[in-house]
Specification:
This protein has 389 residues and is α/β, with parallel strands linked by helices. The protein folds into two domains: 124 residues, 3-Layer(aba) Sandwich (Rossmann fold); 234 residues, no CATH class. It contains 14 helices and 13 strands. The strands form three sheets. Strands 2-3-4-1-5 form a five-stranded parallel beta sheet, covered by helices on one side. A five-stranded mixed beta sheet has the order 9-10-11-12-13, covered by helices on one side. It has a three-stranded antiparallel beta sheet with strand order 6-8-7, sandwiched between helices. Helix 4 links the parallel strand 3 and strand 4.
Length: 389
């Protein structure tokens, strides 16, 4: 596995993780590259044949007749120091046994990965005080350029993007035609497994969606398997009509569920990183409050599962939400603008001819416009926010 793991391209998350911590969690949706990241770290930091590091996946048949606790004890007694555990959500008592291993073997360091639905705080054993969690997402537009085009661009914070858009645009345009690249990214740039055939890529995305719905949600959210078909219907309806102006009662009637069940399922789909729910006021969000707008989690997912042709305006907004939600809080702009970031910046998303009419005289307001290469005042290219992680 290590021999086949390439280290030519390393995700930015590699440099953010505090690898010396005793217990590290890497959470993320299926297919975003968690396994690759762990294997790359092992390959880069331990010589071939080194016995102090061990990688294993917890859906291995080995664990049908052995416990994780047994494995950790054997490894520790043979001088093991660094244990890398993949797919921990596939192992029913993962949190209890990890807590016990943590307490029994103080010199053993553990890095584990699992679904974005993994709940470290409310698992059977609370690991929140012991564990340092990190969330992993699909490729940003910046990482897409590095992965698929061999164009390396440094990360720019949102503040840097808003203050220095002119210089950033100049640097990008010296290396590539960003509008052309951005159109590719919208269709097939989010997941790091595109091999050149878009049809195969979309089939793989559909498979990921099915595995999340059929395996992870019953296991980690307690969803009754009998309702999986209704969840698929819900996702299909949303994919064909996002951004969805939410009428929970109508939605519930369409798929035959109660209103409260629909809200709970929407929240679970958001945690599973299949949907992105936006609320108009994050400070007063209650558990059973309906979202104000619903998007799919990323534009590739939208193109892969929508049963009707995707509106470019929807794809643009989905991209903006997908990129900015990694490091920022996003609210639905109910009165002015499409959305508000960090309770401060208002953004309106549109095409090259988008005007400031809807956000005129609003402080800290910006237009994110598609099909432009350079910033003009507060009108920025939409692709530029894809450089923020």
């Amino acid at each position: 596995m290590l021999a086949l793991t390439s280290t030519n391209i390393i995700r930015e998350l590699m440099n953010k993780i505090h690898w010396n911590n005793r217990l590290i969690a890497i959470r993320g949706s299926r297919g975003v590259g968690k396994t690759t990241l762990m294997l790359q770290y092992i390959k880069l930091n331990y010589p071939p044949g080194n016995r102090i590091a061990l990688y294993c996946t917890l859906d291995s048949i080995y664990f049908s007749s052995h416990t994780l606790l047994e494995l950790a004890e054997k490894f520790y007694l043979q001088g093991g120091k660094h244990l890398f555990l993949d797919e921990v959500h596939k192992y029913p008592t993962w949190s209890k046994e990890l807590k016990e291993i943590y307490d029994l073997y103080p010199s053993l360091q553990i890095v584990f990965s699992g679904s974005s639905l993994l709940n470290i705080l409310n698992a059977d054993a609370d690991l929140s005080r012991r564990c340092l969690p990190y969330n992993m997402y699909g490729l940003s537009f910046r990482e897409f350029l590095m992965f698929y085009k061999n164009i390396r661009i440094p990360v720019a914070s949102l503040q840097e993007v808003l203050e220095n858009a002119g210089d950033i645009c100049l640097g990008i345009n010296e290396q590539c035609r960003p509008v052309q690249m951005f159109n590719e990214y919208l269709h097939d740039g989010y997941y790091p497994f595109f091999t050149g055939n878009r049809e195969d890529y979309y089939i793989n995305i559909e498979n990921i969606v099915n595995l999340i719905l059929e395996q992870e949600m019953p296991l980690l959210c307690g969803v009754d398997p009998a309702y999986i078909r209704k969840l698929k219907a819900l996702l299909s309806i949303l994919a064909s009509s996002v951004p969805y102006e939410v009428d929970i009662t109508k939605l519930a009637g369409t798929i035959g569920l109660t209103r409260n069940s629909v809200i709970t399922y929407l929240q679970n789909l958001d945690r599973a990183e299949l949907l992105k729910l936006l609320y108009s006021d994050l400070t007063s969000v209650k558990k059973m409050q309906k979202p104000d707008k619903i998007y799919l989690q990323n534009p590739n997912l939208l193109y892969a599962i929508a049963s009707t042709s995707v509106q470019i305006g929807t794809a643009r907004e989905t991209f903006a939400i997908s990129q900015l939600s990694v490091n920022h809080e996003i609210e639905y702009g109910k009165t002015q603008g499409d959305f508000v970031v960090d309770h401060k910046y208002t953004f309106e998303v549109g095409g090259a001819d988008k005007t400031f009419k809807q956000i005129a005289d609003l402080p800290d307001s910006f237009i994110l416009a598609d099909n432009i290469e350079y910033a003009t005042g507060k009108k920025l290219p939409l692709w530029i926010i894809g450089l923020t992680y």
